[in-house]
Structures are given as structure tokens and as C-alpha cells.
Amino acid sequence: MKNSGFFLLLLYALLGLGLPSCAFFQKGDTPVVTEPEEGQDQALTFNDVTLEQANAEGEIVWKVRSPLARYNDEQKITYLETPTGELFQEGQLVYQIQSKKGQVHGDGSKIVLQDDIVATELKNQAVIRAQELEWLPAEDLLIVRNNVNGSHPDLEITANEARLQSKAQRMELVGNVVATTKKNPALQMRSGAVVWQMETDQIISDRPVEIDRYLCANPQNCPASDKAVGDRGELNLKTNVVTLEQQVQITLSEPPLTINSDLMRWNIDAQQVTSERRVTIVHPKQTLTLMGDRGTLELESSIISLFGNVTGVRQVPSSEFKADRMTWVIPTEEFQAEGNVFYRQADPPFTVTGPKAVGKLQDQTIVVTGGDVVTDVVP
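The structure assignment produced for this chain is given below.
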């Protein structure tokens, strides 16, 4: 320890004041004993002070600097003005912090900051701004509250509270969470709570979630073009893939479709929506509803592929078909169907069955081929 630190420890001992264990004070000026204000205890005031704490292995745990510090022996709290500092985990620097006010509690097991906090998570270059911060080094837990705003090279986030764990590379966000990607097109994810697994670039929510897609880099500059909701979901920042589960609905503007299922994956870059569970697709302009056990929508080519117990119902003109597999070309309204094909229309009324079929429902032009084809015309 430096001589000035030793002098300060000696001075604390002479004054009969306690000092946080493993904490070292370094300063340039002589400490001043201030007269207590009403309702307050006697305190020592220091100028240009540095506080440090090391663990039993000699690894530094935290270091905080302040131009003005006041130690209250009754409360066992050191009060800091405009503190700046560094927080460590297993001897490695993980956070840089600053604020207008701060406190070091007891033996240094907790640091609290207030007002205009800036905390930088160095490994992922995430910068978090808030009004309250609490650092619990023994738990590897950094908590920020009150108007939380975070910035990352790939993401902007807001929430009521964030809890960071450096070793696990995990950030838990709670309360009015909004996460917006910095890509074009941009995605915005909203939920009551999410977990950001920073090492794997995954944002996961185990509760109802909404995701909007914007055809611009900043959602403030354009309206949402597509929307998705589900009871839980995940956004992979690396692959730009959205996964939603339970009561999932995706509403697209182009092509104008509403898709419902209990599991869907939306690959933003590949412009593809897939479902491995029963899926329903509604095209309101074509008055068409399609269903299948699983399916894929290629957004760029506007082609729907459905597999297993496929059913299609068109309201105008009224018609229905069933098959094992079907491909629907949205712009031309052409389809191809295979396996146990069944087609029925209302005007003129008839049904037809066979192994394969191609056609256009809006023209009621259907060609069924292959093997046994049966047509039933109702007079």
C-alpha cells in the first residue's frame, strides 16, 4: 500500500472510525472531520479520493474515483460525488461506470450509483444509461433501473430494469422492453421481459411478444410493414431469424397475408416464413384460406408450399380442394396439387378427384391427371 493509504488507515484508527475491509483510500489532501448536520452523524470528507477493493486472491474487484467523498461511520457508507470507476470479475475488467452520485456500502460488497449513470460492458461494447445502478460483485450482478436505455453495435434497447451477469454473458430486461435492431430493414421486439444471451446473440422472451418489421433503418422514419405476435419468441441477431411459439400470427403487407400457427420461423434475410405445425394462411384479396400440417412461404417469389392434409377454400367464386401437397403462386393464383386430390365448386356444381391437379381457382380452370380420375357433375 502507498504511504498516503497507510496514513489514512492510521488516521481512521486514531479517530476510532471503522473502514471497509479490503478497501484502500488514496488522496492528495488531508481528510477533514465535518460537523454533523441536523439528523446526520459525524463524517470524514476527502478530496480527490480513489477507493479500491481486492479479493482474498489479491485480484482487484472494483476501483472508484471521486473528487469529493464523505465517509459516515454510523451508516458505514462512503458517499461519492461524480464518481467514475471500473468493475472487475476474476481480475478482468468488465464494466466502466460513471454517475453524478454514488455510495460504497459497508465492506465494499455493494456499490450504488444515482443520476445520469453510464455503464459500459466492455466485451460486447454495450453502453447502458439509467438513473440507478447497483453492483453486487459477489453475485456477479449489475442492476440498472429507472429509464434504462442501452446501445450496442447491433441493437438499441429500453426497459424499466436490466440485470447483467458478466460471466454468463447474460442481460435480463424487465418492464416495457423494446429492442430495435440496427439493420435495414429494422426489426423491433416488444415484451414484458426478455433475456439477451450476448454470447450467442439471442434475445429470448418466455411471455407474449410483438415483433415489427420496418422497411428502413430507423422505425421513426417509416411505418411497420409487417407484424408478428406470439406467446413467446426469440430473435437471433446473428442469423436475423425470428422464432415464435404458441398462438403465433404474422401479418404481411406484401404479399397481403395473415399466417397463423403454433410455431413459425421468419428468416428476414432469406425472406422466408416456415412452420412445422398446422398452419393457416389467409389471403383476403383473393378470398382464399389455405391450411396444411406444415408449410413454407417464399416472400420474394410469393410462393406458398403446404404439406399434409392440405385444404384450400375460396369464397368468390366458391370452391374447395384438398390434397397431400400443394404449391400456390400468389401473383398468378395458379396452383399445383399432388396426392389424393379432391376439388369441388358450386357454380356449375361438380367434383373431381385424382392423383394430380393444376389450375386457377379464380377461373375455375382445373386439370386433374394421372391414374384414376373421377368427375361427378351435379345436374
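Interim note for the steering committee: Helices lie at 3-15. The chain has one helix and 30 strands.
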